[in-house]
Write a structure and sequence with these properties.
The chain is of the alpha/beta class. The protein has three domains: about 80 residues, MurE/MurF, N-terminal domain (Udp-n-acetylmuramoylalanyl-d-glutamate--2,6- Diaminopimelate Ligase, Chain: A, domain 1, 3-Layer(aba) Sandwich); about 200 residues, Mur-like, catalytic domain (UDP-N-acetylmuramoyl-L-alanine:D-glutamate ligase, 3-Layer(aba) Sandwich), CATH 3.40.1190.10; about 110 residues, Protein-Tyrosine Phosphatase, Chain A (Alpha-Beta Complex). Helices cover about 35% and strands about 25% of the residues. The protein has 14 helices and 23 strands. Strands 9-10-8-11-12-13-14 form a seven-stranded parallel beta sheet, sandwiched between helices. Helix 11 packs parallel to helix 12 and helix 12 crosses helix 13. The longest helix is centred in the middle third of the chain and has 16 residues. It is globular, with a radius of gyration of 23 Å. The chain starts with a strand and ends in a 7-residue tail after the last strand.
Length: about 425
């Protein structure tokens, strides 16, 4: 907790109102504001947080951060940049907070799933990033919600060069996990090598007594990482050797040494995520043995829109619509190929944020899609139209409503339907 006067000091703002008002936590959404929170009135592309100050006060916020003169019944701190003020407050609180261990996760895909797995294994005294809150708003909000936690598990993301380093300085991890490197967010990075260089900033921030956990196929030889590096993979050369696969229903299977389990998550790639999570958790809480960690991860289900399976009126839907890049698309297609079903239907939407690589990456999908041998493929979006040009017996639609109507008319009892797209594709 902190006072309104302390809040003004660490955000370099001007206080209007009482200086001894007690505050705790932060919110950028008046609908989710809790009593005692500081409400940050952010101005975005579509909304202005200043319009919701009264709603935040009604919800119980104790103080408000603004960038203009307003009147309110709670202390007001006026700053030049509300977004930077949130980061500054989180940096101030991070210096005060002490954790037994801090784990940070980054990568092209698998961040949120791996984060959730680690948080589950570390137990009830954990604060973790909510959903995929992994940028300069989400990470500070996670820090500011970390009262009385023993462990911090933070997801750290980036859409362009220069975003990881300040977040790593804020989180100050003891253990860093790099889940994967692939052609994601190329609009902001340009190429895969630049993606790696940016993501590795998290591992470079680790102390010399820290631990970096990475898949064995990521080459870190060119980078200055002072922490101990532990590789996870399928070969004898990996520090932690794993065996992975899927069962008949598509759920991931994992074996490390004498311990094995079937996950409650679809896809072999989630077995790799679980492996990374288990190794990171072993170093975060060495008193836990591997069998305990396997038991913890076994029953954990995936987040919404990440290969969630749901049966509706005799039809099985696999919803992987949270987001899409080439790596996650290939993983979803590989999974769907392994699943047995009387009839397979795929609804595939554009992969966004690929910049100049968009056309090439969508063309490359055609072989992977054909290998699934689906009975029906419906493409949605202008980029997927490029993919569809080399595909026989498919339907292609630019308008999402057309795709939904087509699906509704074609599905049958017993079908299994994969839905995969970037979340910017609204269908």
């Amino acid at each position: 907790a902190f006072t309104s006067e302390q809040l003004a000091s660490c955000t370099h703002g001007t206080l209007r109102g009482e200086g001894n008002v007690q505050c705790s936590g932060a919110s950028i959404d008046s609908r989710q504001c809790n009593r005692g929170n500081v409400f940050f009135a952010l101005s975005g592309k579509h909304t202005d947080g200043h319009q919701f100050i009264e709603a935040a006060i009604s919800a119980g916020c104790a103080a408000v951060i603004v960038n203009r003169d307003i009147e309110a019944t709670v202390p007001i701190i006026k700053v030049e940049n509300v977004r930077k003020a949130l980061f500054d407050l989180a940096m101030h609180r991070r210096e005060q907070l002490e954790f037994k261990k801090v784990v940070a996760i980054t990568g092209s895909v698998g961040k949120t799933t791996t984060k959730d797995m680690i948080a589950c294994m570390l137990g009830s005294t954990v604060v973790k990033s909510l959903n995929s809150f992994n940028n300069d708003l989400g990470v500070p909000l996670t820090i500011l919600s970390a009262e009385d936690a023993e462990y911090l598990v933070a997801e750290v993301g980036a859409n362009e060069i220069g975003e990881i380093e300040p977040l790593a300085l804020l989180v100050r991890p003891d253990i860093g996990v790099l889940t994967s490197i692939d052609n994601a967010h190329l609009e902001g990075f340009g190429d895969c090598k630049t993606v790696l260089a940016e993501k590795v900033k998290l591992l470079e921030s680790l102390p010399s007594n820290g631990v970096a956990v990475v898949p064995e196929d990521i080459d870190l030889s060119e980078f200055a990482i002072s922490a101990s590096i532990y590789t996870v993979g399928w070969s004898d050369g990996a520090d932690v050797r794993i065996e992975t696969g899927v069962d008949d229903d598509g759920y991931g299977t994992l074996r490390i040494g004498e311990n094995e389990c079937t996950l409650s998550m679809l896809g072999e790639h989630n077995a790799m995520n679980a492996s990374l999570a288990i190794v990171a958790s072993m170093y975060a809480r060495p008193e836990l043995d591997q069998s305990q960690l396997f038991n913890s991860v076994h029953g954990l289900e995936g987040s919404a829109g990440r290969l969630q399976k749901d049966d509706v009126d005799g039809i099985s839907f696999i919803d992987d619509s949270y987001n899409a890049n080439p790596a996650s698309m290939r993983s979803a297609l590989k999974l769907f190929q392994a699943i047995s079903s009387p009839r397979k239907v795929m609804v595939l939407g554009d992969m966004l944020e690929l910049g100049d690589f968009a056309h090439a990456e969508h063309r490359l999908l055609s072989n992977c899609i054909q290998s699934v041998a689906a009975d029906l493929v419906i493409f949605v979006g202008p980029q997927m139209k490029i993919t569809s040009e080399s595909m026989p017996s498919i339907y292609e639609h630019d308008a999402s409503i057309d795709a939904m109507l087509r699906i509704a008319s074609l599905l049958k009892t017993g079908d299994t339907v994969l839905i995969k797209r970037s979340r910017g594709m609204h269908y």
